[in-house]
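Archive entry. Fields below.
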Amino acid sequence: MDATVRPDFAKGGGLITAVAVDADNGEVLMVAGMNEAAYDATLETGIVHYWSRSRGKLWRKGESSGNEQTLVELRFDCDGDAIVVRVHQQGPACHEGYRSCFHRTLAADGSLAVDAERLRTPDEMYGNQG
Amino acid sequence: MDATVRPDFAKGGGLITAVAVDADNGEVLMVAGMNEAAYDATLETGIVHYWSRSRGKLWRKGESSGNEQTLVELRFDCDGDAIVVRVHQQGPACHEGYRSCFHRTLAADGSLAVDAERLRTPDEMYGNQG
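PREDICTED_STRUCTURE:
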């Protein structure tokens, strides 16, 4: 019997929603889409892959920054169209150099306040590619 | 000056991705979409609202089950098209009666294993509506 369960990619037009969570402290690091190829590559390699909507290509997280995510645990939601990936995050998850992409909180006056430390600058992560 | 910042609803075709997190222990409870009306209703009432894709309507979480989410903090991601809502969750977040919708983990054999306790049955939450 093949017990392998697959997410429901069709529901989201080929993409499921993946929430990356720091396996060490439970912090939500980022949210991105995964297509079937990204999901399969994640399971096969143990390194988290996403589908980059902006670049229209398979995206191995950390391929240019070095900030890889090693898969620790993969959880399905009740509908099968969203997953939580618990990961060991190398360095910052956010392309702006913060540990989490969710480093800004909505303040009472409607503005956004950064309440996290910037670990690296984008230049340090990606170099000056101009 | 109006400092009010808005999420980027246009990028996701009118919807942003909202990740609900238990404010007490950081557990990811659920993922759902929010349109502008749901986002505004959440801020205005302090009770989390989503857009129900399946029912095509504004959805005050807990409106039929009683399992409301009181907003504690709202965080923006770097792209502005996903938010984390830290909430006080009343009872189970999941319509299957589990605290979190992500109550199943992918096991080594490819099957899904429930590793959480069911708090209520759907009948207890929604009654027998047959």
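CURATOR_NOTE: Chain B touches chain A at residues 2-5, 17, 19, 21, 25-28, 30-31, 73-79, 82-84, 94-96, 98, 101-106, 109-112 (CB under 8 Å).
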